[in-house]
Automatic annotation (TrEMBL):
Requisite cofactors: Fe cation
The protein's name in its UniProt record: Alkylglycerol monooxygenase
GO biological process: lipid biosynthetic process; membrane lipid metabolic process
InterPro entries: AGMP_C, Fatty_acid_hydroxylase, Sterol_desaturase/TMEM195
Chain segments annotated as coiled-coil in the UniProt record: none
Alphabetical keyword list: Endoplasmic reticulum, Iron, Lipid metabolism, Membrane, Oxidoreductase, Transmembrane, Transmembrane helix
Catalytic activity annotation: 1-O-(1,2-saturated-alkyl)-sn-glycerol + (6R)-L-erythro-5,6,7,8-tetrahydrobiopterin + O2 = a 1-(1-hydroxyalkyl)-sn-glycerol + (6R)-L-erythro-6,7-dihydrobiopterin + H2O
UniProt lineage: Eukaryota, Metazoa, Chordata, Craniata, Vertebrata
Superkingdom of the source species: Eukaryota
Length: 410
């Protein structure tokens, strides 16, 4: 019986990655009963990434990613989830507040039609979250993290921003006037999980599904820095919103991935926060208040005298021959980083599973250790002169934590 339940759990986990779930198995009366689907998906993320690697090696003889890029993307995914160690996610917290105090009506939590309505409304809301994250510069400062990879593979989906969650909540609040928090909590997670598998170059064309669903082909365009790719294909699970609002573009010339202006680093905190520093410098450069506001509230490419989203003709031309940023570094260091990265991933997973049984001080200590470790890994990959000393301190701290009540000592 236990083996049967394990199989059921495995198949449900896989189906969750593709939004192939029924209302009956994913409806809950209370938001506290909604499973942490995203956190539970960590093994599936890793498993599918391994499958993608093996298939790409068998198909073309070359992997779709490099160690430095994958490790950096996974590091960003870890950082983006850290705030939920201490409090409920910002999106669901604000949603519950509006629901408790301002709701106008209450849709049934156990109704199939309400489930499907929520599916559509969450995806519609995500379209606008995503679109404004590209069209408003102060929101792009957070979202640019996701576009910083010059590769396109499943690990790219994990390259998430720490700060975007503190602005995206606004777009979902209208739902809270009628849709129960438990229904929202289900769909906001499944919508995110669906977007994992579309970050791949292995899947080319899905035929008629391309008209309705957001697919790898559509999302490759979204991640491109070719002129025809800029500000296109914002959909989450569905592409119909892009077709409806004029932001759709089919895949054409070879897509070149990454930011328009390359940052050439794998240091995770620089990737997360460098654009805020750049934004501050641009803001201070202008004297007129309307230009200052334009820096924040218009597109990343905007300049005085240009259209709101900037002039896409000024985007640096790509030829399709560009190579991703991937400086060489010793094989021994790659092995070292992979081993310690996997160990850190285990600590991260254990910390989430056991956080309610640990003291707040222990959780804080482990959070600090994880952040220090991710910084050290980035320094190693970038081959910074201070990397050996920082890594030595990290290893000393790891041994110290092993002596106390932490996931190390279990």
């Amino acid at each position: 019986m236990a083996q049967f339940m394990d199989v059921v759990s495995l198949t449900k986990g896989i189906r969750s990655m593709f939004y192939i779930v029924t209302p009956n198995e994913s409806s809950f009366e209370n938001v506290e009963d909604v499973p942490p689907y995203v956190q539970q998906a960590t093994p599936f993320f890793m498993g599918l990434m391994v499958v993608e690697l093996v298939v790409s090696l068998l198909k073309d003889g070359t992997p779709l990613a490099c160690v430095s890029d994958v490790v950096t993307s996974v590091s960003a995914g870890i950082i983006s989830r850290m705030p939920t160690l201490f409090a409920r996610g910002f999106e669901i917290t604000t949603y519950i507040y509006v629901w408790d105090n301002l709701r106008l009506l209450e849709l049934p939590w156990d109704s199939a039609w309400a489930w499907w309505l929520a599916f559509l409304v969450v995806d519609f809301s995500y379209y606008w979250v995503h679109r404004f994250a590209h069209e408003l510069n102060f929101l792009w400062a957070a979202h640019q993290v996701h576009h910083s990879s010059e590769y396109y593979n499943l690990s790219t989906a994990l390259r998430q921003s720490l700060t975007q969650q503190f602005s995206s909540w606004v777009f979902y609040l209208p739902m809270a006037l009628a849709v129960p928090p438990s229904v929202f909590a289900v769909h906001i997670q499944f919508n995110l999980l669906y977007q994992f598998w579309i970050h791949t170059e292995l899947i080319r064309d899905l035929g008629p599904l391309e008209w309705v669903l957001n697919t790898p082909s559509h999302h490759r365009v979204h991640h491109g820095r070719n002129e025809y790719c800029i500000d296109k294909n914002y959909g989450g699970a569905l592409i119909i919103w892009d077709r409806l609002f004029g932001t759709f573009a089919p895949e054409g010339n070879k897509v070149v991935y990454g930011l328009v202006h390359k940052i050439n680093t794998f240091e995770i905190f620089h990737i997360q926060f460098h654009y805020y520093k750049y934004l501050w410098r641009r803001f201070n450069r202008y004297k007129k208040i309307f230009n200052k506001l334009g820096v924040l509230w218009k597109g990343p490419s905007w300049k005085p005298g240009k259209p709101r989203l900037g002039d896409h003709a000024e985007v640096p031309e790509v030829t399709g021959e560009e190579l991703p940023f991937n400086p060489s570094w010793p094989l021994a260091l790659k092995v070292y980083v992979c081993i310690h990265g996997l160990m850190l991933l285990g600590v991260y997973q254990d910390l989430f599973e056991s956080r309610l049984m640990l003291s707040q001080l222990t959780v804080l200590m482990m959070t600090g250790y994880i952040l220090l470790s991710l910084t050290s890994i980035g320094f190693i990959i970038d081959q910074r002169p201070t990397a050996p000393m920082l890594e030595f301190l990290r290893c000393v701290l790891m041994m110290m934590l092993h002596r106390y009540e932490t996931p190390f000592g279990e």
